[in-house]
């Protein structure tokens, strides 16, 4: 495995290839009772096609809000997001969440086939594509099973198979493996990378795990405590395809994890201090000592 020097930059632009996802001056404010919650402030990112872009940041810094805005599920208060569509027939995005993203009343096969069928793909294409991704995720023998008959790891495999079979322009993943145990998480990371290597879709991936960010990502955005801004960008130099376990023996891997933690530490502490202050003022209000 060869490596190059990692590159940390405060620049919000990666001048590599035309942007698949362009985010400019993005802000999101939630009006909550008397006080507005500024979730995101002036986010500027260009994500080139084929990049595995990872977002890390302290709890509540706006990661999910950012992903939901990219997905078109949430509207920005300012700025804009553009996802470049290369083919009008393909969906713009598919999302995978931390919890179950699949339909409990459908079999594994029907879940994986859902997107293709919904847009009227020919039966032969559905058969070939779904068969391929169930094979890739080790689910061929579970094609007729229902989600409740599967383990958490297998259900996330179904989510992966469904998302890739749907063949979206971009793939959006919100802490998809965070509820899994360490062993399953490592296996799923390996499988995700193996499936992703086939066509290198543009991915935006949220995680709380710095290890996971370095293992999977091409570029990592470290966010500040709320209001969420881009604190820094780190380019991950490890060549692909990557060996998830082998990577951990590479000295530069530990250096990168440390470097990102260094950026993150103050933000996590600030989030904790804000939580303590909020709890204190809530308690004072409840005790009538305002
Ligand atoms: N619909 C909403 N109404 C009011 N406030 C909201 C809403 N959605 C999110 N927020 C607030 O915006 C901030 C950012 O939330 P978001 O879920 O995006 O953060 P996050 O970084 O994904 O958090 P976590 O890491 O804990 O999942 C939080 O303070 C949250 O309480």
Describe the structure.
The protein has helices spanning 63-70, 108-118, 123-136, 152-165, 182-199, 210-216, 251-286, and strands at 7-9, 19-32, 35-48, 52-56, 78-83, 93-96, 170-174, 202-206, 219-223, 230-235. It has seven helices and ten strands. With 290 residues, it is of the alpha/beta class. A seven-stranded mixed sheet has the order 1-10-9-4-8-7-6, with helices on both faces. A three-stranded antiparallel sheet has the order 3-2-5. The longest helix has 36 residues, at 251-286. The chain is globular. It has a domain at 1-84 and 200-284: P-loop containing nucleotide triphosphate hydrolases (Rossmann fold), CATH 3.40.50. The protein is 37% helix and 23% strand. Residues 1-6 have low confidence and may be disordered. Bound molecules: adenosine-5'-triphosphate. Adenosine-5'-triphosphate (ATP) binds at residues 30, 32, 37, 39, 57, 59-65, 226.
List the helices and strands and how they pair.
Layout: E1 7-9, E2 19-32, E3 35-48, E4 52-56, H1 63-70, E5 78-83, E6 93-96, H2 108-118, H3 123-136, H4 152-165, E7 170-174, H5 182-199, E8 202-206, H6 210-216, E9 219-223, E10 230-235, H7 251-286
Parallel strand pairs: 4-8, 4-9, 6-7, 7-8
Antiparallel strand pairs: 1-10, 2-3, 2-5, 9-10
Helix pairs in contact: 2-3, 2-4, 3-4, 4-5, 6-7
The structure holds adenosine-5'-triphosphate (ATP).
The site of adenosine-5'-triphosphate has 13 residues, from β2, β3 and α1.
């Amino acid at each position: 495995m060869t490596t190059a020097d990692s590159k940390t930059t405060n620049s919000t632009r990666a001048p590599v290839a035309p942007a698949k996802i362009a985010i400019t001056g993005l802000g999101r404010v939630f009006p909550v009772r008397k006080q507005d919650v500024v979730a995101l402030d002036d986010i500027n990112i260009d994500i080139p096609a084929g990049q595995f872009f990872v977002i890390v940041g302290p709890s509540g810094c706006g990661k999910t809000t950012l992903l939901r805005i990219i997905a078109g599920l949430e509207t920005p208060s300012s700025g804009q997001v553009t996802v470049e569509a290369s083919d009008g027939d393909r969906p713009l995005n598919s999302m995978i969440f931390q919890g179950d993203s699949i339909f409990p009343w459908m079999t594994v096969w029907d879940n994986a086939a859902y997107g293709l069928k919904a847009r009227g793909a020919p039966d032969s294409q559905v058969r070939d594509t779904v068969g391929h991704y169930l094979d890739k995720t080790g689910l061929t023998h579970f094609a007729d099973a229902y989600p409740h008959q599967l383990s958490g790891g297998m259900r996330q495999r179904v989510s992966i198979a469904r998302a890739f079979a749907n063949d979206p322009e971009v793939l959006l993943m919100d802490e998809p493996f965070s509820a899994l145990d360490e062993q399953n998480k490592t296996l799923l990371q390996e499988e995700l990378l193996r499936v992703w290597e086939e066509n290198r879709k543009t991915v935006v991936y949220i995680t709380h795990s710095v290890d996971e960010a370095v293992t999977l990502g091409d570029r990592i955005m470290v966010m500040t405590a709320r209001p969420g801004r881009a604190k820094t960008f780190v380019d991950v130099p490890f060549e692909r395809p990557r060996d998830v376990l082998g990577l951990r023996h590479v000295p530069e891997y530990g250096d990168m994890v440390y470097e990102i933690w260094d950026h993150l530490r103050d933000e996590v502490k600030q989030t904790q201090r804000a939580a303590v202050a909020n709890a204190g003022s809530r308690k004072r209000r409840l005790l009538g000592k305002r």
